[in-house]
Write a structure and sequence with these properties.
Order of helices and strands: HHEHEHEHEHEEEHHHEEHHEH
CATH topology of the largest domain: Aspartate Aminotransferase, domain 2
Structural class: alpha/beta
Number of helices: 12
Distance between the termini: 29 Å
Shape: globular
Strand order of the largest sheet: 1-7-6-5-4-2-3
Largest sheet: 7 strands, mixed
Number of strands: 10
Helix content: 40-55%
CATH architecture of the largest domain: 3-Layer(aba) Sandwich
Number of domains: 2
Length: about 375
């Protein structure tokens, strides 16, 4: 069976550098907030163009710390997408605030700006919660429509926290890289992410000096002038030094890997577009990448009929597949009883059709061809 995400090939490629980096940490013994942490933060700032980068323990803590910097709590509402991993929603709820869902665009699969506008009006009309901000998610590596989202936020006095857990290094037509499109941006270094460590990790980006200072404090128990001077409630959210050392080495090849991801995605896309039914109509829909956008391609997903048949056929041929996401957030047990429930037909429809295929920078042409042929055989046989 080929891997769904191939971490082993990358590790073999840079194993000497990774081993040496880890040995340097073991030699100096500064396992918490060692020098590699600061070096990584500087390297991430240089890569992204952000003025501040604060590394943290994982992507979820990155979101929580960002929200804490805005003093989010009970009575507050934050708009987000229902079509995301639960961590986005959880970060809002764990602080006692209320997530308010705006449906997604059926082509990009990202939160829809038109739906954000209508959701803002709905929350204001109900006058039960104080609407504070928006958390768009750059799903599967594609940046959301920040030109419109930021305009809406400015009009209504809202903050924007960019959840780029799947999209570090993705870019918009102006060349700006994720996660620098909002007031604050977050990402994850979970191993399966485009830039992943060998354990948990995350980072927060901002150009706002005051917000950066707050987050610096929040990540270490709300410390003030030292760790025994607690100025606010915070978290234990530091990035381990060994993870920083690993990520420093991975970041050195990350631009090249983004290029490789793009090439694999292009080959997939070209072949998927050639799968047609007996009338010549395309059978498979894929995530639409608007002109000028460059995805980080955390996943390559398809939408089409016969999902379960496709998944079974792939498994029979030793090709794994995964459903992201089978249940939209508004239907999860943890979200039942929210004071605000939207009609979210697009996210529900997409969740019943979506399937993620094996994808990584090192996916070879033969494997890709076999995957596509397997999908094609299922759909063509069914259509005929």
């Amino acid at each position: 069976m080929i891997p769904f995400i191939d971490l082993a090939t990358q590790q073999i490629r840079i194993k000497p550098e990774i081993d040496a980096a880890i040995q340097r940490v073991l030699a100096h013994g500064q396992y918490i907030m060692g020098p590699e942490v600061g070096l990584l933060e500087q390297a991430l700032k240089d890569f992204s163009g952000s003025q501040h980068c604060i590394t943290v323990s994982n992507g979820t803590d990155a979101l929580i710390a960002a929200l804490m910097a805005y003093d989010i709590g009970p009575g507050d509402a934050v708009i987000t997408t229902p079509f995301t991993f639960f961590a986005t929603v959880e970060a809002i709820m764990v602080l006692g605030a209320t997530p308010v869902f705006a449906d997604i665009d059926p082509r990009t699969l990202n939160i829809c700006p038109n739906q954000i506008e209508s959701t803002v009006r709905e929350v204001h009309s109900q006058n039960k919660l104080q609407l504070r901000g928006i958390i768009p998610v750059d799903l599967f590596g594609l940046c959301a429509d920040y030109s419109r989202i930021n305009a809406i936020a400015e009009q209504h006095g809202l903050f924007v926290i960019q959840d780029a857990a799947q999209a570090f290094g993705a870019s918009t037509p102006d060349g700006q890289k994720a996660p620098t499109h909002g007031h604050v941006g977050t990402t994850s270094f979970f191993p399966a992410k485009p830039l992943g460590g060998y354990g948990d990790g995350g980072a927060i980006f901002t150009d706002n000096d005051d917000i950066a200072d707050k987050i610096q404090s929040i990540r270490i128990h709300g410390q003030g002038v030292d760790k025994y001077d607690n100025a606010r409630i915070g978290l234990n959210a530091r990035l381990d030094t060994i993870q920083a050392a690993v990520l420093l080495e991975k970041l050195k090849i990350y631009s090249e890997e983004l290029d490789l991801r793009q090439k694999v995605a292009e080959r997939y896309s070209q072949q998927m577009d050639m799968i047609v039914d007996s009338t010549g109509q395309q059978v498979i829909q894929r995530q639409h990448i608007p002109g000028g956008h460059r995805s980080a391609w955390a996943q390559f997903v398809i939408l089409g009929p016969h999902r379960e048949r496709i998944a079974t056929a792939l498994k029979t041929n030793d090709f794994p597949s995964v459903v992201y996401y089978r249940t939209p957030a508004q239907l999860l047990k943890a979200c039942q009883g929210l004071t605000q429930q939207n009609n979210l037909p697009v996210s529900e429809a997409i969740s019943s059709r979506i399937l993620a295929l094996p994808f990584h920078p090192y996916l070879n042409q033969d494997s890709l061809d076999h995957i596509v042929e397997t999908i094609k055989s299922v759909n063509v046989n069914t259509c005929d």
